[in-house]
Write a structure and sequence with these properties.
A: 145 residues, mainly beta, two-stranded antiparallel sheet, B: 5-stranded antiparallel beta sheet, 19% strand
Chain lengths: 145, 169
Amino acid sequence: MYQNDREAVPGFDGNELLYLRYYSGHFSGGQLLPAAIRSQMKQSVNRGKFSEPEDVLFSETGEYDGLGVVEFRVADIPRKVEQPDGPTYVFFMRHEPQATNYSHSEIWSDHFPPTGSFKSPSKTVSLEFRIRLCRSIRVNIEAVR
Amino acid sequence: MALLASPAEIPGPNAGVLRILDQPDGEITSLIYSSFRRASFEKVQESAFLRNNESFAELRRRLSATSALQRGWDSYDAEPPNTNARVLAARILDVLEGALLSPTSLTPAVDGGIAMSFVEGGHRAVLEIYNTGDMAAATYSDDGEPVVWELDEANAVTTAKQIRVHLAA
């Protein structure tokens, strides 16, 4: 899991799996709730190319014990969300390795055409994005708390 | 209409359709049926009212419990719901209770705020109340595009109706 001087790998295959921790209260009616996904700031996930699902729950202090892991593919991330009044937003992956977690990555958003920096989506764009993403999310390790 | 008498060889009460002489059968039947229906309806109403009360009492307890959350409560770095979001969420709960529309769940949102979700088979809806004071609502199903709009206190009653219609579709 350690970075060990490895560089970030910018390319993501559409079939690559991404892993995210969740707690049981955020799963209802067989689907992850949009409230479990962050969009106003960058949502952290682990990329499957460099990690296993259970790595998301690893902690020397056991602080993630009982939480679950959901997975989705890079291709499941809605690429573009439009709104009647206001800018269109695009969503994409960034590999942002951390010293203790090389697989750490983030879901970013930007205006379309892209500005090259992170732009928080409007509340309605954010909600639509998260609803569409949640439809594709599957449980890998079920949460018990 | 003749009463059906028990055959003499089989002891027991008469069985069949109640008839009172000189009164139309329809009126008698209606009288008996309407009192039964009224009593049943009152029981159902009372039961639905109590269930609704209990459900909203539990939702308010959950809303109150979010005040104990600390930053990072989601195991990442989420802000806890602030007072602004909790007060707004309490007002939205009042509107929903008046509309007898109980959310399936009430949870903190990782973007900072409170989320209420509704699930009825493959039909879903969500209300999100953010720490900024903004609110958004959406109805969606397993297929098709979600319908998303800005929620405010002025359109909360209309929003509740829209959600009810969507869930019943």
